[in-house]
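Input.
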Amino acid sequence: MAAPALSPVRPAPAGPTRRRRSGSRAERLAPLVLVAPAVLIIVGLRLWPLVLGVNFSFTGDGDRDGVMVGLDNYATLFSDPLFRTALRNVGLLVLLLPVAVAIPGLLATFIYLRVPGHRVYRGVYFFPAVLSPVIVGAIFTLLLAFDGPLNGLLGGLGIGPVDWLGDPGVAFFVVVAVHVWATFGMALVVFLAGFATLDQSLLDAARVDGASFPQTVRHVIVPSLKRTIQFVLVTTMIGMLTSMFGLLYVMTSGGPEGSTYLPEYYIWIQQGRLNQPALASAASTALFVIMLVVGLAQIAILRRAAGKED
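Output.
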């Protein structure tokens, strides 16, 4: 008896499997396609100019334009008393940074706790952030003039006039104070956004336990807003280093005696007035390194402090 013929084995249709594979490949590529325009913009408009600027800082000015001069520009920078003054002022900004962050933080705390008039305060505190630095500088130049309203008020109280913008030991701190007044509204908004994530039960527990306001701030609010504080610290420091040009130009023009110089203003002087773009590029590179080091140091300190509290 003949054995029955075996029917040939047909391979399973590969259509659905291929579709699944092609679908998974498209899903993997979709995020890259969506991110690609932003990456190209960042590389083309941020990273590539940064690389060109760093490379340009190793070339010469004037007769040596385009000639590689190595570290000569950096040697010139650190031998310039004005640039050393600018670096000293950066150190003062780092020391004043906690105050610049604590002010909007405390005001945001008062608003979050709904002090009387908190809705009005929110708008009043943010209003200076929409003013141009030139306008702010012009207003405070008039207010702080030697014969201005502030000294007139001090004279009525029997206090001698102060040369707010003409005294080398006072002018820089005055400009920083005006900058903090003009910009802390944005940090205030960031802190209020951070308070939206705060667990209300922690505040209620602290209130039940009889914690004072300083204890509540130290043991409840600060640990809960550590990410927000990190963000505000870094952005405030960057703003101090890169956004005070308008105030410096209008209020002091780098004076008196160069005491209010910052790297940003020094860069403009070298490029805009002295026509030394290579030296200005070296100063820009130094400013970038300063911001990077200070920002990373702040984040590391805050993370270490948060780790100890945990």
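The chain is about 70% helix and 0% strand.
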